[in-house]
Amino acid sequence: MDESLSPIGLVVSLANADSKVLRDRLLDLLCELAYREGDFVLSSGQKSSYYINCKPVTLHPQGALAVGRLLLSVLPADTEAVAGLTLGADPIVTAVSVVSAYQNRPIPGLIVRKETKGHGTMAYIEGPILREGAKVVVLEDVVTTGGSAMKAVERLRGAGYEVNRVISLIDRQQGGAEFYAANGLEFEALFVISDLQEWRSRQV
After folding, report:
1. Which pLDDT value is given to residue 26?
2. Is-cis flag, bond preceding 87, omega within 30?
């Protein structure tokens, strides 16, 4: 067997791949493992003819590596931490933080709870305690209306951090970008939904 095609070989090659190779491999994984068509109700309450569950990709070794490298490459230079709302953002935040250490640009990760911790410190935010005013970027897997990541933004700002940007793996283009702009947040996504749908149609 060609070692470059083995799971270990693929991870090693992605570790040194350029952004196009990373994006193509991530699109492959998203179309194969994350995208489903049918009748669904989203967390926003909206009905949809398709559903995207990124966790099988962000918890996949190749997916996590591609996500970590691609997101790290678009973070502002002054980023002091990345953060996200549990559960969807947990593996994304971890991937970026781990990759940052390998690239000599260590960036800690923060996980924002949906509800306060029920014991001990009763904390909403897990991770290192940063300086007051530290610049934190919120990461998200899929953005629809923008409400989920906004909860993380509000908690982080409430803890004294500066949060001006949200970065998502996928933008469903259903109002999230406009919502963030209205709340003074910069927003970008690695992919929009049409990227997945067009890529998927070419693979069928």
Report:
1. 97
2. yes
Question: What is the spatial distance between Cα 69 and Cα 127, in angstroms, rounded to a whole number?
Answer: 21
Selection from 111, 118, 120 nearest residue 89 by Cα: 111
Q: Hey, CA dihedral for 201, 60, 168, 152, is it positive or negative?
A: positive
Question: Is the pLDDT assigned to residue 202 strictly greater than 50?
Answer: yes
Contacts of 30 (CB under 8 A, 6+ apart): 52, 54, 57, 169, 170, 191, 196
pTM, entire model: 0.92
Please state, in angstroms and as integers, the Cα–Cα distance from residue 132 to each residue in 136, 158, 194, following that order. Answer: 11, 11, 39
In 3D space, the residue among 201, 169, 187 whose CA is nearest the CA of residue 52 turns out to be 169
